[in-house]
Amino acid sequence: MTGPTRVLIVDDSASMRAVLARALSADPDIEVIGMAPEPHTARAMIKELNPDVVTLDVEMPGMDGLSFLEKIMRLRPMPVIMCSTLTARGAEVTIEALRLGAVDCIAKPAGNPLEIARDAALLRKMVKAAARSSVRQGPSRLAPVASQPGLQRDVVIAVGASTGGVEALFSVIGALPPDCPPVLVVQHMPAAFTNGFAARLDRESRVSVVEAVTGTPIQRGTVYIAPGGSNHMELVGGTNGHIRLRPGEPVGGHRPSVDVLFHSVAPLGAAAVGVILTGMGNDGAAGMQAMRLAGARTLGQNQASCVVYGMPRAAFELGAVEREVSLSAMPEAILAACRK
């Protein structure tokens, strides 16, 4: 695309519209072309202005953001970033929005000036990535992969994802059999959302899905979602080891970091499988390279099925990806790597 990224802000709070507009307009490559206080006005503005990206309030009077998003994705799919309050209800609705095809989510800017400036920078980064994303028309469900007892090696699966990853993980994790090897996942999302994400994924999967807790022994048939926020997630003790959540500075701007998880799994060598899914940036590329050099099987989501072909591209260009596969083929590819 040429020219600045054109953004429509949809939020029922006049003060929040002003905050978002100010944050976005600080970047010369972003143009706020309109602001709508509710979905009916927004619908008319979308038709008239044809924005590149919409930022959408999760909860609004009249028609909530989720209902409006469903209409957008069915009638006129476009990149949407959900803006949510850090509440249980806000998190639940945001996760559903991401499953329905919203590109990303961000907590509404709040706190001290430093925190607001950090959130504003992240929002600008998200908006520009969203403008380059490949939008999907609603959620897809993959056929469940059958259990194949006795054929899987004693391995650990490590997965990294970011932008578009929630929808991808619903598809991939939802297709895994209940006896699959343990799966450790780092998905970039706000801290308030990861517990709800794990609970929702658990309800829709044949495997057990939990938010990771430090010291927990890993076991078959369980997926461990790294908590967002103040800790990195690592594997300690090999294929029969346990999870460690440790504080530390962000790595590549992320905490938890996919790179940290992958580096912790790399010593397992051939007893590890690495998977990198859709996402912006390059988190996970160096860690996956370490895994592959140690003898692990490594898979990357291909460009055609990615919402944002950033993290998989970075890993592929580094030589860290053994094989690229589509999202629809990923569950079987993961299990095949576990059997070899």
Automatic annotation (TrEMBL):
Post-translational modification: Phosphorylated by CheA. Phosphorylation of the N-terminal regulatory domain activates the methylesterase activity.
An MF annotation (GO) of this entry: protein-glutamate methylesterase activity
Domain Response regulatory: 6-123
Modified residues (4-aspartylphosphate): 57
UniProt-listed SUPFAM superfamilies: CheY-like, Methylesterase CheB, C-terminal domain
Domain notes for this protein: Contains a C-terminal catalytic domain, and an N-terminal region which modulates catalytic activity.
Family listed: Belongs to the CheB family.
UniProt keyword list: Chemotaxis, Cytoplasm, Hydrolase, Phosphoprotein
Enzyme class: hydrolase
Domain of life: Bacteria
Substrates-to-products reaction catalysed: L-glutaminyl-[protein] + H2O = L-glutamyl-[protein] + NH4(+); [protein]-L-glutamate 5-O-methyl ester + H2O = L-glutamyl-[protein] + methanol + H(+)
EC number: 3.1.1.61, 3.5.1.44
Domain (CheB-type methylesterase): residue spans on this chain: 144-340
Active site: 162, 188, 283
One GO CC term, this protein: cytoplasm
Pfam family, one: CheB_methylest
GO BP terms: chemotaxis
Compartment(s) where it occurs, according to its Swiss-Prot or TrEMBL record: Cytoplasm
Stated name of the protein: Protein-glutamate methylesterase/protein-glutamine glutaminase
Coiled coil: none
NCBIfam families: PRK00742.1, PRK12555.1
Cited InterPro entries: CheB-like, CheB_C, CheY-like_superfamily, Sig_transdc_resp-reg_Me-estase, Sig_transdc_resp-reg_receiver
Function: Involved in chemotaxis. Part of a chemotaxis signal transduction system that modulates chemotaxis in response to various stimuli. Catalyzes the demethylation of specific methylglutamate residues introduced into the chemoreceptors (methyl-accepting chemotaxis proteins or MCP) by CheR. Also mediates the irreversible deamidation of specific glutamine residues to glutamic acid.
